[in-house]
Write a sequence for this structure.
C-alpha cells in the first residue's frame, strides 16, 4: 500500500509515492527528489516544505517501526503435522473384510470377554443373565463404534484427530487424555494376565522351576512372588513392546488369524475337557450354586432391573477403549468403507457372548470339581492334564493376550499420547507405545498381584469397579461424538438443495452454481 507525502502548495513538481518497505536511505532522499526540476520555489516556501516534509517522514517512519515491532495478532492456530497422525493414502488402504473379521474375533475371544460373565456374579446375575448382558453390551458397543468410525474410515485419520470436529484442536487433547487414562490400566491388566498365563504353563510343566528362587524375598518387588514371575513379566514386556514398536500394523494384521485360531482352539479344548469331566448341565448348575454365592458381598444382591443395566455398563466399559475409542484407528486402512462395520456387527455380538458362556461353564466346572473359584482363563491352566497341554495353552494364551493388548488398547493409547504431547515432543507412536508399555510394566511390577490378576473376590471387585468407571467416561465421550453426528445430519437435511452437496460440474461458474457454491463446507 503506497502513501503520498504532502507537498506545499507552491511546490509544483511531481509527487513521489513511497512504498511500505522503504529504508532510511529512501526516507532521506525524498526531500531531494525534485531538486533537478526546472521551476524552483521561493526560499520561505522551501523552508516550510522541508519542515512539513520532515514531519511526514518522521510519522511514516514511526508507523513503519510500530507495524514491524508489534505485528497484528492472528487467531489461526498452526500445528506441525505428526508422522503418526498423518492420513492414510489410497495406496495404503488395502485391508479387506477378512482382516477386520480376524481382528474382531481376537477381541471377542480375549480375556475381558471371558471374564464378563464370571464377574457378572458380583452383581448377582446367573449365567443366563450374564450371557444376555454380554450380548447386549457387545451389540451396543459394536453399534456405537460403527457410528463413530465414519470419519476415520473415510478420510484415513486417527480417531483422536477426527475428535477435533466435536471438541476442537485443544479440546481433543483433553479427549485424548481421558482416552489415555482408560487405555493405560487395561494395558497393564492384560500384561499381568499374559504374565500369569506364561507362569502357570511353565509351573504346570516343570513344578521345580517355580520353587527355584536364588533371590531373597526382600529383593523382589511387591507384585512378584518369585524369580520366575519376574522373568515372565520381563518377557511379556519385551514381547509387548516388540509387537508394537518394532512390528508394524501390517504385521499385527497378519498375526490376527493365527492368534485368533490359537485362542479359539484353546477355548474349544478347555470346553471339551470340562464337558468330559462333569457334563454341560452340571457345570452350569454349579455356577449358579457355588460361584454366585461365593462372589456376592455380604449385603443382599442388586435386583434384576438394577443388576442387568450395570452388567451391560460393565461390558461397555470393557469395550470402550478397543471398540468405541480405538477401532477408528484400525478402520483407517480399510479399502471398502462398510467392511469394519460389517465385521463388528456380525462377529462381535456373536462371539463375545459365546466366550462369556464358556467362561461361566468352565468356572462352574472348576468350582464343582475342586471347590475353588477362578476368574481368569489363565488360572484354569493349573487344572489341566497332561502337563504339556498346560504349557502349550499358556504360551498360546500369552501371545494372544499380548496381541489383544496391542491392537485394542496400546495402539489407540499411543495415538492418544502422541496427540496429547504434540508433535514437537512426541510424534512417533512407536516411541509413545514404548513409553506406555513401560509405564504398564512398572505398574504391574509394583502393584499388588491380587488386584491385577483378579483371581479372588478383591481383584474381581477392582475389575468390576474399573470397568464401570470406564463405561461411564467412555459413554459420555461417545455421547458427545454421536450428538455431533446428529447435528451433522440435521445440517445436511437443511441444505437448500435438499441433500448432500455435490461437487460442481466442470466449466460451471460461481454465478451458474447458485447457492450451492457458496454453502459452507462440512468438516465431518
Amino acid at each position: 500500500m503506497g502513501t503520498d507525502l504532502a507537498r506545499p502548495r507552491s511546490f509544483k513538481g511531481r509527487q513521489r509515492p513511497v512504498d511500505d518497505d522503504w529504508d532510511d536511505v529512501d526516507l532521506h532522499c525524498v526531500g531531494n527528489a525534485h531538486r533537478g526540476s526546472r521551476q524552483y520555489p521561493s526560499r520561505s516556501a522551501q523552508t516550510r516544505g522541508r519542515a512539513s516534509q520532515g514531519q511526514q517522514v518522521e510519522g511514516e517512519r514511526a508507523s513503519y517501526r510500530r507495524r514491524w515491532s508489534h505485528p497484528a495478532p492472528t487467531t489461526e492456530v498452526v500445528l506441525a503435522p505428526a508422522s503418526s497422525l498423518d492420513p492414510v493414502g489410497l495406496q495404503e488402504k488395502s485391508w479387506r473384510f477378512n482382516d477386520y473379521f480376524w481382528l474382531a474375533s481376537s477381541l471377542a475371544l480375549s480375556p475381558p470377554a471371558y471374564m464378563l460373565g464370571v464377574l457378572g456374579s458380583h452383581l448377582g446375575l446367573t449365567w443366563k443373565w450374564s450371557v444376555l448382558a454380554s450380548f447386549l453390551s457387545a451389540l451396543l458397543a459394536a453399534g456405537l463404534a460403527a457410528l463413530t468410525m465414519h470419519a476415520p474410515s473415510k478420510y484415513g485419520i486417527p480417531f483422536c484427530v477426527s475428535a477435533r470436529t466435536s471438541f476442537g484442536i485443544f479440546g481433543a487433547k483433553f479427549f485424548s487424555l481421558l482416552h489415555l487414562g482408560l487405555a493405560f490400566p487395561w494395558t497393564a491388566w492384560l500384561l499381568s494376565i499374559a504374565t500369569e498365563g506364561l507362569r502357570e504353563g511353565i509351573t504346570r510343566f516343570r513344578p521345580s522351576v517355580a520353587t527355584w528362587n536364588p533371590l531373597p524375598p526382600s529383593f523382589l518387588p511387591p507384585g512378584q512372588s518369585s524369580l520366575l514371575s519376574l522373568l515372565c513379566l520381563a518377557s511379556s514386556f519385551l514381547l509387548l513392546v516388540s509387537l508394537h514398536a518394532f512390528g508394524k500394523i501390517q504385521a499385527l494384521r497378519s498375526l490376527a488369524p493365527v492368534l485368533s485360531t490359537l485362542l479359539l482352539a484353546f477355548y474349544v479344548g478347555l470346553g471339551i475337557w470340562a464337558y468330559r469331566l462333569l457334563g454341560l448341565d452340571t457345570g452350569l448348575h454349579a455356577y449358579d450354586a457355588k460361584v454366585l454365592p461365593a462372589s456376592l458381598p455380604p449385603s443382599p444382591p442388586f435386583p434384576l432391573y438394577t443388576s442387568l443395566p450395570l452388567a451391560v455398563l460393565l461390558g461397555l466399559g470393557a469395550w470402550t477403549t478397543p471398540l468405541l475409542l480405538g477401532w477408528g484407528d484400525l478402520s483407517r486402512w480399510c479399502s471398502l468403507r462398510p467392511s469394519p462395520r460389517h465385521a463388528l456387527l456380525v462377529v462381535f455380538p456373536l462371539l463375545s457372548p459365546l466366550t462369556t458362556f464358556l467362561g461361566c461353564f468352565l468356572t462352574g466346572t472348576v468350582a464343582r470339581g475342586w471347590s475353588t473359584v477362578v476368574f481368569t482363563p489363565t488360572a484354569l491352566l493349573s487344572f489341566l492334564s497332561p502337563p504339556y497341554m498346560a504349557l502349550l495353552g499358556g504360551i498360546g494364551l500369552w501371545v494372544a493376550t499380548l496381541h489383544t493388548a496391542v491392537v485394542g488398547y496400546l495402539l489407540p493409547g499411543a495415538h492418544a499420547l502422541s496427540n496429547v504431547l504434540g508433535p514437537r515432543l512426541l510424534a512417533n507412536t512407536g516411541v509413545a507405545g514404548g513409553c506406555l508399555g513401560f509405564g504398564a510394566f512398572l505398574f504391574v511390577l509394583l502393584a499388588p498381584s491380587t488386584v491385577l490378576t483378579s483371581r479372588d473376590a478383591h481383584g474381581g471387585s477392582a475389575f468390576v469397579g474399573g470397568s464401570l468407571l470406564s463405561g461411564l467416561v467412555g459413554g459420555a465421550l461417545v455421547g458427545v461424538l454421536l450428538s455431533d453426528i446428529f447435528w451433522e445430519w440435521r445440517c445436511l437435511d437443511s441444505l437448500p438443495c435438499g441433500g448432500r452437496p455435490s461437487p460442481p460440474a466442470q466449466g460451471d461458474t460461481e454465478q451458474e452454481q447458485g447457492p450451492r457454491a457458496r454453502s459452507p463446507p462440512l468438516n465431518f
